[in-house]
Design brief:
about 220 residues, alpha/beta, TIM Barrel, 2 domains, 9-stranded mixed beta sheet, two-stranded antiparallel ribbon, globular
């Protein structure tokens, strides 16, 4: 069997205080995502191949080695990290340098997620919609796969944050209620609702009806 292709890196944030709770982290953006969410903040990461702005993973790893003692963690974000065969090796190599490992994912590939989950110390898990409404938000079916991935995450007990971008041009209060019912049924007790930013960069506050619909089903709702 051929060795996995090295991780395709689409970008790097050298210092972040918001991408891994309580830790100073570098964020490695993994190239590629087949979904086309209208509110995507990183559309340049959607193509499978990295642009000229990307960096080879070995160079990123060398840079991380120089940050030991200055950073606490490395977060693999995207795009969608689970698309890449080289993700597991990259996570192991970063862990080998002494860093805690974070993962931002939509859970679109549950089998790969289950394989690499033991390598993650914390997971930010993005839920897009009620599971049966994924095509409406992402342009592709995927809710059943995401549900399986979320079951893996909750069963393992890895520290995590479950979150949803509350784009009310795509999701109604009834969608919020149905999504919250589904998540609560799986054991989710805390849900973060993320605001959407318009073309001018201004945040669009989440509507009271949307929040109320989710609050009725989930014990703890946070806004970000």
């Amino acid at each position: 069997m051929a060795a996995p292709r090295p991780l395709r890196v689409g970008g790097l944030i050298p210092f972040s205080t918001v991408d891994y709770p309580g830790r100073l982290a570098a964020v490695v953006f993994c190239q590629g995502c087949p979904w086309r969410c209208a509110y995507c903040h990183n559309p340049h990461l959607q193509p499978v191949e990295a642009s000229a702005a990307g960096q080879p993973w070995p160079a990123v790893l060398d840079w991380l080695a120089s940050r030991r003692g200055l950073l606490d963690a490395v977060v693999f974000s995207g795009g969608e990290p689970l698309l890449q065969d080289g993700l597991g090796d990259a996570m192991r190599e970063a862990r080998g340098l002494g860093f805690a490992i974070g993962l931002h994912t939509s859970g679109m590939r549950p089998a790969r997620f289950a394989e690499i989950l033991p390598l993650a110390d914390w997971v930010g898990f993005d839920v897009k919609a009620p599971f049966e409404r994924y095509r409406h938000v992402t342009g592709a079916n995927g809710g059943a796969a995401v549900r399986r991935a979320l079951v893996h995450l909750l069963a393992r007990g890895t520290p995590c944050e479950i979150r949803c971008t509350a784009d009310e041009s795509l999701l109604s209060p009834e969608d919020a209620r149905r999504m919250a019912v589904q998540l609560a049924g799986l054991g989710v007790r805390r849900l973060v609702l993320q605001t959407v930013r318009g073309a001018d960069g201004a945040a669009r506050p989440v509507g009271e009806a949307f929040i109320a619909a989710a609050v009725a089903e989930i014990e703890r709702i946070e806004l970000r």
